[in-house]
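Holo model, pyridoxal-5'-phosphate. Inputs:
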Amino acid sequence: MNQKLLISFPNSISVTIKREDLIHTVVSGNKFRKLKYNLFQAKAENKKTLLTFGGAFSNHIAAVAFAAKENGFQSIGIIRGDELKDKIAANPTLQFAQECGMQFEFVSREAYRLKNEAAFLDELKLKFGDFFLIPEGGTNALAIKGCEEILTEEDRGFDYICCAVGTGGTISGIINSALPHQKVLGFPALKGDFLQDEIRIFVQNENWELITDYHFGGYGKVKEDLIGFINQFYADNQIPLDPIYTGKMVFGVMDLIQKNYFPAHSNILLIHTGGLQGIRGMNVKLKNKQLPTIAINV
Ligand SMILES: *Cc1c(COP(=O)(O)O)cnc(C)c1O
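Output:
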C-alpha cells in the first residue's frame, strides 16, 4: 500500500511511503519478501529444519522463527554473542523467537565470523542434522527474487526510490525491477565500503547510488536526534519507523530534501521495510543508558 505524506515539502517535492511494514503482522516488510522463495525451496527439497544466523535484536531471526512455525519447519538460530545465553528473558527478539520454537546456539563473536566456512557448517550438520541454510540477513538469489516483487505497476511514476540497506539484498531486488528513468537510492544502516560490491553481484542496472552519510555511527547505533526524529515523524504522520533501518533512511531523505539534493517536483517513493519488532529491544537499551525512548507501542 502506498501512502502519500500530507506534510508539505519545499520545491513542490512529493513523498510517498510504501507500507511494506503492513504486509504481515509479524514477519513484516522485507524479511517476508526475502523468505518467500526460500521457504518454497526448502519445501521442494523436503527439508524439515531451517538454520540461520543473526545478532541479538535481529529482525531476520524473528522472521525465520515465526515463518518456520507457520510453515511446519523446525528452526535453529546461530546467535552472535555467547554472553546472551543467560539474557534471553531480557531480550524481546530472542524471547519471541524462542516462543516460536526456535532453538538457539550462542557463539562467540570470533566463532561467528567463521559462519560461512565449510568447516563450521559441517560442524553444525554433525550437531543438528540436515537443514536448509538461510544466510545472515536472509540474502541470497531467492531472497532477491522475492524483493523484485516490492515495486509494482503503481510505482512507475516515481523519480526516486529510497530504501534502507543492510546486506544489500533488498535494494538489489528493487534495482532489478526499477525502470530506467527511476533512480534508486540506498541508505546503509552500517559503516563500510563493501556494500557497493555486494550489490553489484546481483544487479546489472546502473541507475542506483548509496548515500553513506546517515548510519549514525554504525549498525544498531542511535543518537538522540534520531530518536527525536522517529518520535516527531510518528506524531506528524502516524507512521512508525524502526531505529535500525527505516528511521535512518527517512531521516536521510528529509535532510537531503532540506539540502536541495532533489530537483523541484521530484516524486519520491520511500520503501518502509518494516523492522518494527526492533523497537522494543532498542527501548530496553535506551532505558539502560537513561536516554529518551521511542514512543511507539508495538
Ligand atoms: C534487514 C532489514 C533491512 C536491510 O535489508 P537488506 O536486504 O539486508 O539490505 C532494511 N530494513 C529493515 C527493516 C530490515 O529488517
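Residues 29-31, 59, 137, 139, 164-171, 242, 245-246, 273-275 surround pyridoxal-5'-phosphate (CB under 6 Å). The chain has two domains: 2-25+144-288, 29-138.
Archived with the compound record.
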